[in-house]
User: What shape does this take?
Amino acid sequence: MSGGRRTARILVTGGSGQVGEALTRTLAPLGEVYAPGRAGLDLTSAASIREVVRDYAPSWVVNAAAHTAVDKAESEPELALAINAAAPAVLAEEAKRLGAVVLHFSTDYVFDGTKRTPYVETDETNPLSVYGSSKLVGENALGVSGGAHMIFRTSWVFGATGKNFLLSILRLAREREHLRIVADQHGAPTWSFDLARMTAHVIARMEAAATDAATSVEEAVRPLSGVYHATGTGETTWFGFAAAAITELRARRPDTRLATLEAITTAEYPTPAQRPLNSRLDCSKLEHVLGWRMPEWKESLALAMDDVAL
Assistant: This one.
């Protein structure tokens, strides 16, 4: 396999989501990318998942699909488990049968947020919500599958499309005079395109390693299988994120009247699902093992704002 660069066959699930859309665009130069919509891939159906994977026969399965409505998951746990837990298990099983690699996105919500410093991959998990619990079951399914895989835990994902905190704040800042934003939950906003670029880097790096070693990508990835943390560099609160977003908006729309912000506590803004107060993730393993450092979140926010329809 030393005769040149080979072409990857990449299956992306959740292609219509903000991360999936970024992946589909960013991974295209690496080979053939197939990102079926919900009509073509029903993640609540094991039969549908098996059919798609077997028909396409990918070398990489990038699972960006998830039930991410955190509060809604509390009232529909069966659906959350089907998409976040059962589907990754089937994807892992089918990928192993093909000799493919699974790259899977997970979440900071697998932790309870009581640690005072950033979480590392080996810290004990203790999710506080149905969403977090379902994502942890999905992680564990990949871990015991026996197939080559990498799990990327991320947090506070934002982008110019889809449903996310950034777009909500930009809309509400123009619609209302005053916004009350939680200021005691700490984490790192992560741009969807930064996750996509990280994924492209990992695939290209592993394809090159497999070529150099005259082996399969599965064998190249297997020794590196496991969990990695991948969030924007730096940290803030939801209040800090909102303030930065409004600052960017004001710079672009100086004549637009925008809401003032008030910092509040989590207790003052109760939600059906409990959130971790500390969502900070240590991403040094990603840099040391896979050679990728996530960009600083404020720099990524400024870049993302250039794509937002204002």
Q: What stands out?
A: The two ends are 48 Å apart (CA to CA).
